TrEMBL record:
InterPro entries: Endonuclease_NucS, NucS_C, tRNA_endonuc-like_dom_sf. This is Endonuclease NucS domain-containing protein. It comes from Arthrobacter methylotrophus. Residues 215-299 form the Endonuclease NucS C-terminal domain. The keyword Hydrolase applies. Pfam families: NucS_C (PF01939).
Length: 308
């Protein structure tokens, strides 16, 4: 089963046209440093070997920045499999799509030295996307998955029979519009209104170079919804939205993400905490968290007012 990824080709897609013409996707992150000796050992070993290299190159960066960058680099070099589909955003608001056809190649002396060969097949406009997919592709990360949108993407990239996927994509989009608490709507609302929330008084969503990078923060077990840092920089906070998932699933997921943060991202003296957010009270979650003192449960309430 193939997976679809977005891979940004330079800032603002500046290198996209060159890469498409040459039949590649490419990323930078660590310059002319050959990563081939560190491939084939898994994402954890890759980060462990190259995080120190990144931090030596960029001494002002944090371990969070190193983990994010090296995680993206591993995904581009090895996490994306041959046969997977990639989308390259272009400056004209279109997305080129193609299939990855090779393993890692090292091209020192170029703007994007870490490359994979791609059979670029065609393009589609951002305007053709559903609002939910368009919101997902708006992430500022360099490499990220679009697995929840597989049916719609199969239609847009013309890689599947269009009839059933269109029906399923429309049904999914209708559900998203009718239920504010679902997936991207709540997540985006929290991010955009962060300073007005109770959590916003204690924490800031993780940013790097003035850009929000803590939304859908990538880990080796999937992206966490939100990563935040306490204002005194001593605590990292993992936030997961229940989104209708089974209670045991969301508790296990946040614990896995917190384990990733503890192992990969924490600086000396820092600790990791978690928050699960849901619309309704959930006795199963509260019971599970009663023996997990570093994870909180919070409910959200949406209020709607009309004024003359």
């Amino acid at each position: 089963m193939t997976t679809t990824y977005v891979v940004r080709q330079g800032t603002g897609g500046a290198n996209a046209l060159e890469m498409i013409e040459e039949g590649y996707l490419g990323v930078d992150f660590i310059g002319d440093h050959d990563v081939r000796p560190h491939l084939g050992k898994g994402a954890d070993a890759f980060r462990a070997a190259l995080n120190p290299v990144f931090l030596e190159m960029y001494p002002g960066k944090s371990r969070i920045a190193a983990g994010l960058s090296m995680g993206n680099l591993w995904a581009a070099c090895e996490g994306i499999l041959e046969g997977d589909v990639v989308l390259a955003p272009k400056p004209d608001r279109t997305y080129q799509y193609g299939t990855v056809t090779s393993g890692y190649e090292y091209h020192p002396g170029t703007a994007l030295p870490h490359r994979r060969r791609v059979d670029w097949k065609g393009s589609f406009s951002r305007d053709a996307m559903s609002p939910t997919l368009a919101s997902s592709t708006g992430s500022l990360m360099t490499v990220f998955q679009l697995a929840p949108h597989a049916d719609e993407l199969a239609v847009l990239t013309q890689l599947a029979d269009p009839v059933q996927p269109i029906v399923e994509a429309i049904a999914s989009e209708v559900q998203d519009r009718l239920a504010f608490q679902m997936e991207k709507q709540l997540e985006d609302f929290l991010v955009h209104n962060w300073r007005s929330t109770a959590l916003g008084r204690e924490y800031d969503i993780y940013e790097e170079d003035g850009q929000v990078k803590g939304q859908q923060f990538p880990t080796d077990t999937g992206p966490m919804d939100i990563l935040a840092v306490s204002k005194d920089r001593t605590r990292l906070l993992v936030i997961e939205l229940k989104r209708g998932r089974a209670s045991d699933v969301v508790v296990g997921q946040i614990q896995r993400y917190m384990g990733f943060v503890q192992e990969v991202l924490l600086e000396p003296g820092q600790t990791v905490e978690g928050v699960i957010i849901a619309q309704e009270d959930d006795q199963k979650i509260r019971r599970a968290l009663s023996v997990a003192q570093n994870i909180r449960f919070m409910r959200y309430r949406v209020e709607f007012h009309l004024e003359a």
